[in-house]
Amino acid sequence: MRVVVLGTAAGGGFPQWNCACRLCVACRAGDVPARTQDCLAVRADDGWYLVNASPDVRAQVLATAELAPGPGPRDTPLRGALLTDAELDHTMGLLMLREGGGLRVSGPPAVLSALGTVRDTVAGYGSWDWSATPALPGLTVSTFAVSDKKPRYAAASTEPGPWVVAYRIADPATGGALVYAPCLRTWPDGFDEFVDGATCALVDGTFFAQAEMSGTGTSTAAQRAMGHVPIDGADGSLVRIAKHPGTRWCYTHLNNTNPVLDRRSPEYATVRDAGVAVPLDGDVLTV
Ligand code: MLT
Ligand code: MN
Ligand code: ZN
Hints:
Layout: E1 2-7, H1 22-28, E2 39-44, E3 47-51, H2 57-62, E4 78-82, H3 88-91, H4 93-96, E5 104-106, H5 109-114, H6 116-123, E6 129-131, E7 140-147, E8 164-171, E9 176-181, H7 191-195, E10 200-204, H8 220-226, H9 237-241, E11 248-252, H10 266-273, E12 284-286
Parallel strand pairs: 3-4, 4-5, 5-6, 9-10, 10-11
Antiparallel strand pairs: 1-2, 1-12, 2-3, 7-8, 8-9
Bound molecules: D-malate (MLT), manganese (II) ion and zinc ion (ZN).
């Protein structure tokens, strides 16, 4: 199975347009590589599927030769998208894809419900298929309920969860399996078993530390409200990752405050020394 890591930043991207924090300034100066909002492309038997549709999807497709259109003037190898949640950084790209007819989009029922306006909007451009059951021809997809964390725009929704899921995509031809979990509020019960034996797992690396947004002009309360397990600390993800040495681990969905963005930082060294990768946009995984 071929997987292109199209984007690796959290909502807002890196640098974020309205942010002048130390890291965003270093990025604009060319000292730290820029990143688009997290999204994957996975190759199935009938073409490519996105896992999440970031607001940067147009630039991501243009940067990826395998996603180029053709041979017919409006042929595209893109067949659809799987959604892990309804957050804007994972769904706004659907509107950018409106010129493509016949895409198949799947996600949990609460997510499809929250996207009602997007679905109605896209319906005016082309007929898409929306389904609660993910299907990638030639691959096996399993879904893990991560949390009931709702996007802020859907705070009043009474839809039952899950609002956030993780996917495990297995390739029977290679025996390989990939786990994608860019939004983890905590390390959920049962997630260790879900990941067990996976070749590769890309997980939430939004924040390195519990209170990293204090001191950047944004607050610790704002960070807590965003609801992402930090990398570091006794309740962090790194100690949980250490229990699965057979899996190739990667952090994605990096917030612009995360010092791991800068490979010269001690925090990056901590992650690297634990054997965890921090892929850049455009990196390819073979699973
Ligand atoms: C998140 O990951 O917490 C959300 O995407 C935040 C946002 O709205 O950008
Ligand atoms: Mn996000
Ligand atoms: Zn910033």
